[in-house]
Amino acid sequence: NSSEVKVAVCSIVRYWITSHFPHQMQHILPCWSFWHHFPNAKRVLNLHKGRAAHFTNSSTFSRGVRDVLEASGVSIVVMKPDQYFDNHVYGKPEVVSATPPVDNFIGYKATHQDAVRSLRSSALAAMGLDQYQQVYCSANHANDAKDEIVAAPAPRKEPRIVIIDRETSRTLIGAYDIAFLLQKEMGLSYVPPVVYFEDLTFAQQVEAFANADILVTAHGAHLAGLVFMNRCSSLIEVLPHGYGYPTFFGTMAALSGVNHSYVYLGTNIDEENIDPRNETARLAASRAPMCPPAHVLVEATRTQIARWRQCCGFTSE
Questions:
Q1: Has this prediction a pTM greater than 0.85?
Q2: How far out from the chain centre does Cα 17 lie?
Q3: I need a labelling partner for 278 at 20 to 30 A (CA). Which of 71, 214, 224, 308 fits?
Q4: Residue 239 in 3-state DSSP?
Q5: Is 250:225 a contact under the CB 8 Å cutoff?
């Protein structure tokens, strides 16, 4: 009986490149989903001693997620899983433990979308961004904090399009030109902003995701923040030639209720993909600047706007 469990311990034992926050989130999502299943239990994240500091302090994003976990009542401990059972005041029947299986190249796992939405809600609350708890796109909007549909103050007639660019590797050539082109082709009343995450706080990164209906960006670590996007929103992910892994963040998008599409800068993604074990070739492919065809991005954006309208319940312009 899940309501009788007093302690839920999620142990992370695989530490290959978990100092990199997209792979940290591969562990956090199943752990959060596990805790979500035991609503009355004390939540414990058990980390391996040798890498605990990397996992919780290696980047702005990592520190932000740590703060969200702690604000949500998660105790972060460093010990062997058996040690927690031996040292804890509760008996083993009242304590459950899990170690999430992770494949670093496949993507993300969770038991249910509700768990991911509750993580989003907890992050928004911890960052003081409660104005994004109630998200709307038409006559109805979802309250992720309560998981219900309530009346929206007014429908919006156009989506909020955001472009996230990178300052170093995988830069989008002509990002601002793309923004002006999308304004013209989509008939927008504004120029989509171009955002760079390198100098943003975690709260600012969360807000950028929470405030986007259509997100255009290159494949990259920053997409670990997809969990903070609204339901009905869309991601257009630009994949470099030879470095096409659409299912990696595609799985996170699916768990978050986000539409996902990609633009691959090659001709055959299956034949051209570089073996990820070939680090030299993989890094060369992943760091090159990218110039996505403008007409392809325009059509991809048009398609995602149509999906946004359909999901939001628009019946006419």
A1: yes
A2: 18
A3: 224
A4: strand
A5: no
- Helix%, strand%, coil% for the chain, nearest 5: 45, 20, 40
Q: Where are the beta strands (DSSP E) in the chain?
A: 7-12, 42-47, 74-78, 95-98, 134-136, 140-143, 148-151, 161-165, 194-196, 214-218, 234-239, 259-264
Q: CB within 8 A of 179, min separation 6: which ones?
A: 163, 191, 192, 193, 194
By three-state DSSP, how is residue 172 classified?
A: strand
pLDDT tens digits, residue range 206-219? 999 999 999 999 99
Considering only 57-61, 152-156, 293-297, which range has the smallest mean pLDDT? 152-156
Q: How far apart are CA 315 and CA 69, in angstroms?
A: 40
Q: Are strands 161-165 and 148-151 parallel, antiparallel or unpaired?
A: unpaired
Collapse the DSSP code of 132 into the 3-class scheme (helix H, G, I; strand E, B; otherwise coil) and give the result.
helix
Query: 150 vs 108, 136, 143, 195, CA distance in Å?
Result: 30, 9, 7, 31
